[in-house]
Amino acid sequence: MGKPLIYEILEKPASSSIIGICSLIWWFIQKRGIGYGDVGLSYEAAVDGGQYWRVITSAFSHISVVHLVFNMSALWSLGVVEQLGQIGLGVEYYLHYTLVLVVLSGMLVLGFYHMMIQRFKVEYFRRVTAVGYSCVVFGWMTILAAKQPSSKLNIFGVLSLPISFAPFESLIFTSIMVPQASFIGHLSGIIVGYSIAWGLIHGMNNYWAITMLGWIALVFILSLKRTGSMELSFIEIEPVTDPSLPSVGVVASRNGRTLQMDVLPGRRVADIV
Questions:
Q1: Which partner from 104, 146, 211, 254 sits 20 to 30 angstroms from 267, CA to CA?
Q2: What pLDDT is stored for residue 103 in this prediction?
Q3: Which carries the bigger pLDDT value, residue 248 or residue 134?
């Protein structure tokens, strides 16, 4: 007989809190009729439009309930990381490197898009819009596979995968079963996960985590203000754009705000991560 749910929540406080946050955001998105283009991460919006806040909003946003349930089920299973303080993991480690995974995996996705657009001239990747917590989920799968290869990943309580193969099994499975699943997003999470597990990214502690969180909050708020995505009257930013250049702006739509660009017309493509 398993433990009561309340005890499992207390043993996984960080992952339980993230599941709660993602679920509340999903409810808010459904209630307000928000779409992929309003919160998702795309090269067109984030890089060309300067909407850097999308690196954060895209990670915690889910449009489909099936997408939300799949990601949160996997995340619940990966919460075992919080209970492995004896091998150098634990709650603090989980919080520190979740922050790293959210930011670096999002930046790596944009890096891949940049390479495909600039080097290979594939304009499709300019408008692909990604949402979802899968980058972080795949990152934690990878870290756990390296640190605790004997663990199992349980999804929906019925599917159990050896954690040592779970990142690549899940990458292949989702790419086949869910055509919209972001191969680049999932791969980015795996790359950042291995970088953490192998010590290429290391040294996170409370000081660096709080410092990093402060910079993230500052960039998030300033980019919201600068792109006009939210009215913040207490912050003033001097305009630096040349009026002779093509404009990038945010215009109101029925479902929220959408990006309008004079030089890059075209429809967005949803990419689930």
A1: 104
A2: 98
A3: 134
The confidence band for 177, taking pLDDT boundaries of 50, 70 and 90, is: low
The residue whose two tokens read 């499709």 is 124
Tokens read off for 125: 């990747």
pLDDT of residue 232: 53
* Distance from C-alpha of 23 to C-alpha of 29, rounded to nearest angstrom: 10
Number of residues written out for the chain: 273
At 172, which helix (H) or strand (E)? helix 166-177
3-state secondary structure (DSSP) of residue 12 = coil
Question: Could you tell me which residues come within 8 angstroms of residue 151 by beta carbon, excluding any fewer than 6 positions away?
Answer: 80, 144, 145, 163
Catalytic (active site) residue 105:
no
Angle (CA) 254-258-261 rounded to 5° is: 135
Is 134 catalytic? The answer is: yes
The percent of residues above 90 in pLDDT, for the chain, comes to 64
Q: Per the residue annotation, which of 134, 182, 188, 223 is the catalytic one?
A: 134
Q: Confirm whether pTM is higher than 0.85.
A: no
Catalytic choice (186, 188, 195, 223): 186
